[in-house]
Protein 1
Amino acid sequence: MGLFDKLKQGLGKTRENISRGFDSVFTPNEIDEDFYEELEEILIMSDVGVNATGEILTDLRARVKEKHIKLASDCREALKAAIEERMELPEGAYDFEKGKAVVLVIGVNGVGKTTSIGKLAHIYKSEGKKVMLAAADTFRAAAGEQLSEWADRAGVDIIRGAEGQDPASVVFDALQAARARNADILICDTAGRLHNKKNLMEELKKIHRIIDREYPGAARETLVVIDGTTGQNALIQAREFNESAEATGMIMTKLDGTAKGGIAIAVQSELNIPVKYIGVGEGIDDLQRFDPEAFTEALFDRDDEKEENKDADT
Amino acid sequence: MAFESLTEKLQNVFKNLRSKGRLTEEDVKAALKEVKLALLEADVNFRVVKQFISSVGERAVGQDVMNGLNPGQMVIKIVNEEMIALMGSETTELELEPGKTVTVIMMCGLQGAGKTTTAAKIAGKLKLKGKKCLLVAADVYRPAAIKQLELNAGNMGVDLFSMGDKASPVDICRSALEHASNNGHNVVIIDTAGRLQIDDAMMQELEDIKRETGVHKTLLVVDAMTGQEAVNVAAAFNDRIGIDGVILSKMDGDARGGAALSVKAVTGRPIIYVGMGEKLSDLEQFHPDRMASRILGMGDVLSLIEKAGSVLDIDEDKEKEMSRKLKKGKFDFEDYLESMNQMKKMGGIAGILGMMPGLGMGIKQQDLENAIDDKKMARTEAIVLSMTRQERQNPDILNPSRKHRIAKGAGVDISEVNRLVKQFEQSKKMMKQLPGMMNGMGKKGRFKLPF
């Protein structure tokens, strides 16, 4: 199964929900205010948020005017373009994967940090890199065990601390180990923290400082994990995490449900933190690099899905 | 932040609504438009919002506007009441089976909603009430889930039942029930694995557990940060398994928690607890009124309205008199004292700021108290009270000898008296220069007095 198909399969539900709505809107009728209102409803129902929805629609109106589009059914491409433009990855988004890198994974509780790290380790490992994990979530009960389990599955080394140990010291140990064992990528798990807990956000800053000081040559990648079912609060989460830990990318998890993950569009267009990976299932292979074109394509492309279903049937 | 722009918008809407008497359709429409945005920003489901807005609208048109409120505020008041009513007017207790029957509670929800943590918290709560609980580790899928429950159970001093991750969840639950009746447990809490509501096999598993063990209470754990998806999740779990109550987790974050309203609207089931922190003791009763104002995102602006209203009822004449004086720049220490008293009635500066939207949640009480000292206000009051009536009405006569007497009377240093008088003179000057500002301030004017 190609990457695109896998993404599409993962996004099946997302697409189904958005597209079903879209299909009923893109009728061969003239564009009127009702059309925009219906689009607004669909976008908001997909967690895109009031602001981003407004921007997308303004953008769409401009495109409609510029291209002299008359019929609602001809708006599909224009809307697609408007959304895709917002989801584009900056150049060199995955450069950190090429050399030595320290990947710090952060986020609120229960978004799927530990699971995502297991899958990330698997991706890098299967690309022939030497990967190490650092279990710096010393707060949640059994978080270390959970990550160990993933380390076993992916077949990579793990550095653990004791429960209640200073997470920064675990990271410190892991950095030494990563340098000594010449690891390519060190991925650090952190405890889930609500972004409004000040002392916990300070802790992240401390971890950052230690990475910079102890391993200056390595690229530093900070990935904020956002649960795909999260609503508008994800914007505040991303903003706060970005402020204390300079997020360089997002991992959007749990997109295999019916959640529409539209909040990704809001976060990226308002904060410019690009989605770099998406989680579409519980299996170790179910984390993928983000492809904006495929993402948008998959949201809209209904015909392909029908064909795919036919293929599956035969 | 979203809150600020929202409140600003509301204020602008209110400014334009000056009609008195009954709420007209325009009043309602204008205010509800903002309410709609507020609810959407809070992640209340779009369809729920639409329904809610239209039913509130119908109720609101033609209602009398309460004294001291403007039409916009009146609409918000109605919205608030309706929301509280919708979420259940009072707190709901988790009811246990009577007599010697073992109550079986099953936790369910999406991955990462907080089931395991919540299960342990409930066990801890019931333990305090003298119940003997048994936590059952039925999540055999997520790595280390059993270990997590085991550690949490240990922390709470509650018994754990586990058969490892090789047995089937249904078998585990069946055996757990046996274990419970053999060992005198009266509550069994089953921690199930997180699952997607569209995962047929996993949903079947919950059905099987429920059927096999005769679960009494099925509790759905919903993350307070959940977006539009909350309705789909709640509806699917309720239709397939049937839920008896909802627990809203991660409420100690700053999510407005619109999911609460959505879930309640689609399932009709009460919200029983809210998770307010990471510690096992941080599981609190659900308060519909607090939730309503949080979702509306207007802080407790409503209680501010109400409080201001009740103060106004008595002091409306004084209020008018004062704003007249303010405009003319004829403002003396008597007025100063009066406005200070009004302020106290409303719970001091810290109290008022705490009620303001955006401030209440964002700023810690401690920071507030550091910034604005109600004690300092008491000292100021003492100084003013130590003046004679003549001095208060005509501050110009304050000479060093009078100031010495005042300082002694108030028990403060003379420098403090000097500072107050100086400040007072300055702000008086400022007010004279800014008569335009006073016009626009209206009722809010007294909050900007120079303390």
Protein 2
Amino acid sequence: MEQILSILVRNQPGVLMRVSGMFSRRGFNIDSLAVGITQNPEFSRMTVTMKADELTIVQVCKQLEKLVEVESVKVLPPKASAKRSMVMVKVHAGEKRLELLRLADVFRAHAVDVTGESLTFLATGVDDKLNAFVEVMRPYGILEMVQTGLVALERGDTHMSVEKSRYEWPNASGTKSVGV
Amino acid sequence: MQMTGAEVMVRCLAEEGVSTVFGYPGGAILPFYDALRESEIQHILVAHEQGAAHAADGFARASGKVGVCIATSGPGATNLITGLATAFLDSIPVVAITGQVPTVMIGRDAFQEVDITGIAMPITKHNFLVKDPAHLAQTLRLAFQMAKTGRPGPVLVDVPRDVQTALVDYQEAVLPPVVEDEPTSEEIAAAIEAISKAERPVMLIGGGVISADAEYDAMHLCEKLHIPVVSTLMGLGAISAYRSLFLGMTGLHGHERANNAVKEADLILAVGTRFNDRVTGERKTYNENKVIIHLDIDPAELDKNIFSTLGISANMNKTLQLIEAGSEPHDLSGWWERIESWPSMDEDFGDEEAPEFFKALNPVIKDKDYIITTDVGQHQMWAAQHLRIQFARQWITSGGLGTMGFGLPAAMGAQLARPKSRVISLSGDGGFKMTGSELFTIASYKLPVTAIVFNNSGLGMIRQLQTVQFAKRFTACEFPGYVDFVKYGEAFGVKGEHVTTPEELAKAVEKAMELDEPYIIEVTVNPKNMVLPMVMPGAGIGDYVKFKE
């Protein structure tokens, strides 16, 4: 089944490679991945979607937690989470400009670029909706498209946080360790 | 205090109590070597960086301390990789320090530049590229802490040349300790109850018992409850092979009694083992009709290979002590009768000659402070089956990665870690040729390592596998030429002798143990010898291959 993993990592060079490397090395397949900095620039948050049964996802979480730069891992509850990904589609418009704009409106997609020949739409939502949007655009001639990974946050007041790192990491302001 | 990055590196090694490092210089690490010159730390100049990594590993296995190896950028660093992977697969605390091209050159494919942190990523617990000299000290402290805490493992620190020469402020410091979890009272109660109900319990001991220094806790528990004990290859020595509770090694070349006990057990108390495929054989049937209690410091090992009934990831000593304190022995006489009906580890499975060489060494090594290192292949399995290892950290072998060429450099590291002990390195002729150049290092530093080379003029384990799996279509398992290993030793000023019988071998080793210098013994072995018993990979444990060459 589709699982959504939210991973808080230290925002350090190479951390994406370590996390993605763990997935490929251990034979787990990532369906989508989104990475960005958090309110605290020391940490980034990764959202990974993958197909996995309950036993596999537990093992994935444990292998992630084993990476020393991973501070916190959570499997988000699919129904109790807000989820979005984004797609941009550049489609051949030709004579059908108005028709395309009306169709895009059905999906609440916005035109972000217009030329004499093409329209570029931006749509947000979950996969089903975005796939449907792309399929509707396809007959007109998609020139190119790009899609982000899913981002998600659990609904309600619960939130992931890092109270204390396992290790005292070096940082620009010098060491935090106790002098002797 | 202002000093160069290189001086900071040396100070940090001193902070960690490092007495010996193994390394090989090169352009990008020279500032560090210049600073090392001024320190008390002993530097062992190896013949090849792989030897440095294995020696640091052997040092760590013999002492329980962190082993340190040094290499330059590019080829120096890549030569460490097999050694680091060996340490990673066996969870051995090693810190590797590599030089790197100056930060401004990184990414330009400079001379001797390689992305060593990228290469080492899947075979180190963690690694660092230090670009900011201000982070150097804290990074090195962190590297040592990561290497030795939790599940130990190798950590690599890559230091660009300009970071080594930069002036930085240094202050001695200690990191706050990493505290291991303690088991919960519910976990302990559940373990105690399951063990009290077991009619056919077996304790399975792995290398994690040794790395946690928990061998006494494990022994006290099994002795109090009178539970039979089996060991993995990595766990040998955690409980003395002479103890009556010890049934032998379990696994694909395990002892019959040990494997049968695992097969028929209704409870396995697995301590510090990760249920490697060489231990379990067929995974799907391994835990059928069994309660599995799995203790491991790494939570990711629980339910990875074998699903456990109860998994506890916490301080090993504390967990074993609490289980022991809350447990009472119950009658296992029926189980012991059944166990004793199976052939003991002293009974032969076949009538091969080679095991006799190993059995002949037992009276020589018994109760002595001798460390045994092995290479990989037939001699390793014969040693595991037939040598009677008595103490934790007496047995040093590449279990997980199965690295040929490990034994001799590891022996060098072990000898430096424990100068009062005597180290016996066991190799085949194949593995010895891979890293035998470290005999030069051993000779140069006059380390009293005794190197025994079992020479069957070929690759015995390959021959055995081709016998079993490829209908004796032998290929690439016989060496086209002959090497006289005693003469090879002579080239470095190492004395030695050839032996052909078990009695001669025992005498030669006895003699070597009287000497205070390295010694090489070449043992002629018939290439037709097989390691028996043998379970095919993927077959059930105890389902032995029935064949006779």
